[in-house]
Amino acid sequence: MGKILDDLGPDGARPNTPDTQMFYRYLRFFDGICASHTSGTDMGTDWRDNDPKVEPIVEIYQGDRQSYERPGGPRTNTGEYSIGGWRPMGFVSRALKKGLRLGFQSSSDHISTHMSYCNVYAEAPTREAILDAMKRRRVYGATDNIIADVRCGEHFMGEEFTVTTAPTLSIRLIGTAPFAEVVIVKDDQYVYSSFPGKPRVEFEWTDEDAVPGKTSYYYIRGTQEGTTETRTVKSLLGGKTTMDFNNGEIVWVSPMWITLKP
After folding, report:
1. Contact at 8 Å (CB) between 228 and 78?
2. How many angstroms separate the Cα of 98 from the Cα of each of 124, 191, 252?
3. Which parts of the chain register pLDDT below 70?
4. Residue 84 has what pLDDT?
5. How far apart are CA 154 and CA 170, in angstroms?
6. Among residues of the chain, what percentage have pLDDT more than 90?
7. Burial, 11: exposed, middle or buried (Cβ in 10 Å; 0-12, 13-18, 19+)?
8. Of the candidates 202, 224, 217, which has an alpha carbon nearest to the alpha carbon of residue 260?
9. Which residues, other chains included, contact 124 with Cβ-Cβ below 8 Å and sequence gap of 6+?
10. CA distance to 13, 182, 244, 255, per residue, from 140 (Å)
11. What pLDDT does residue 13 have?
12. Nearest alpha-carbon partner for 142 in 175, 169, 171, 188
């Protein structure tokens, strides 16, 4: 897989320094928030640090680069092809497995302003309301103008809560093209998938395997139909390689953390 930062020892990979904790204290003082940028690259992280008060969300997709959702996901970087370096310890899936509570957003960087969006469910069109919604993880990331509404009873995307019966998720997606696939991820495992072939998707799904007393996270990803193009790219392993790229637009909905009451 080539030489990557995560092949090195802890000190060589990324020495512990106080700058991140200093930044968290700065944000707490000014009531601000932050999000890890391109987490699966040399500019990313290994998730050793997190302050849930000021780091409630993560950049799951970077329009000028790739997705850092999980290995094998759509538009995800790999050990052979990763724009900005390869750091698999920075996958968002690893942060979730560690128990971090992170909502999803996508960012455009400087030159991709119409190919990645941070969508926020705010109560008013004000800076204060938008910031509050981000703190509550009422956000989702998308590569196009896709509408996503995911709930569980009276609870909304990004929330953490307890239920007394098996949780039922209500999913509604409105795309800009037919959806090729919609999946539900629970605790880093695919537990549901469908292939709608239409731009509007609405359904409910109940987790009949929920374990009393256990907290599980659930999130939705929808991928629209697109076309595939084969390109020659520079390989991190040296030389060049051919890869297939699909331009189907994607939406990632922030997780919900649900505990089934014992």
Report:
1. no
2. 33, 20, 19
3. 1-17
4. 86
5. 10
6. 74
7. exposed
8. 217
9. none
10. 31, 15, 26, 9
11. 53
12. 175
Query: Would you state the pLDDT for residue 16?
Result: 64
Q: Residue 92: how many CB atoms within 10 A of its CB?
A: 26
| Residue-level pLDDT at 216 | 98
**Cβ burial 116-130 (10 Å sphere, 16+ → b, else e):** bbbbbbbeeeeeeeb
> What distances in angstroms separate CA 48 from CA 7, 77, 93, 111, 165, one per listed residue?
16, 21, 14, 30, 34
Short-list 176, 226, 238, 184, CA closest to 206: 184
Which strands, in side-by-side order, build the sheet including 147-152?
Answer: 155-156, 147-152, 168-174, 200-206
Tokens of 5: 């930062």
Give the residue carrying structure tokens 């993880």: 137
pLDDT of residue 12: 47
SS3 content of the chain, % helix, strand, coil (to 5): 15, 40, 50
What SS3 state is found at 34? coil
pLDDT at 55: 97
